[in-house]
Amino acid sequence: xxxxxxxxxxxxxxxxxxxxxxxxxxxxxxxxxxxxxxxxxxxxxxxxxxxxxxxxxxxxxxxxxxxxxxxxxxxxxxxxxxxxxxxxxxxxxxxxxxxxxxxx
Amino acid sequence: xxxxxxxxxxxxxxxxxxxxxxxxxxxxxxxxxxxxxxxxxxxxxxxxxxxxxxxxxxxxxxxxxxxxxxxxxxxxxxxxxxxxxxxxxxxxxxxxxxxxxxxxxxxxxxxxxxxxxxxxxxxxxxxxxxxxxxxxxxxxxxxxxxxxxxxxxxxxxxxxxxxxxxxxxxxxxxxxxxxxxxx
Lengths: 104, 183
Description:
Strand content of chain A: under 5%
Mean pLDDT of chain B: 77
Order of helices and strands of chain A: HHHH
Low-confidence stretches of chain A: none
Largest sheet of chain B: none
Number of domains of chain B: 2
Number of domains of chain A: 1
Helix content of chain A: over 70%
Number of strands of chain A: 0
Largest interface: A-B, 27 and 25 residues
Mean pLDDT of chain A: 91
Radius of gyration of chain B: 32 Å
Oligomer: heterodimer
Number of helices of chain A: 4
Helix content of chain B: over 70%
Structural class of chain A: mainly alpha
């Protein structure tokens, strides 16, 4: 469920990035890299788990699913926070700078 | 009429008592099961530090990207000095391409580190890994050597695929398009 949540987040971010490309004002590409990287890693995790459990892997207990979904949402939120920090630090539109040094 | 109502109440009460009894019984059975089950069964993945392998690769590739970028800058400066002209090349610098791998590795490792924190496999105090704390370092290294290495290899392989595709696009962009007849 965590893998699925992250994959969906990666797909959505990639679509958003593609719509705005080649301009990357909002630095959405960072989100794409992050979510795709995590998705690939969790894919490996899932393969290892499948090798151990077999078909049982596809029928998780409802509580496990809920917990994994909760984790997935938290991971997506953490990714968004990291992206927001990068965006504010890099400040590609110069908004933060303009706000800080605004003459009254 | 009143007798029927009483009967109904009795049936509902009996039914309720039975249901509650079953629930309590099942709860007790579950408790007993938990008491008699060895802890290893609940810990399918007792020690996870697989994200450390891609993170280590990320450190190496970040340093490599910095070194390559500085060399590329030097070469570009030499070119512009000797030729006195800046040649427009439709080629993405390798440091930029290495940056893609960096972002994949750092991003994935950061989010996976959070997952490990969530599962209590990483702790915010020394020695940071519960496996080291509980003396299961050998198992941890085995897990890093299997899942961790496969993660790093898969990400690098995906990046390799991206390099192949991008070099193909670059080649197409460099070759001049043949002029259309009758144009």
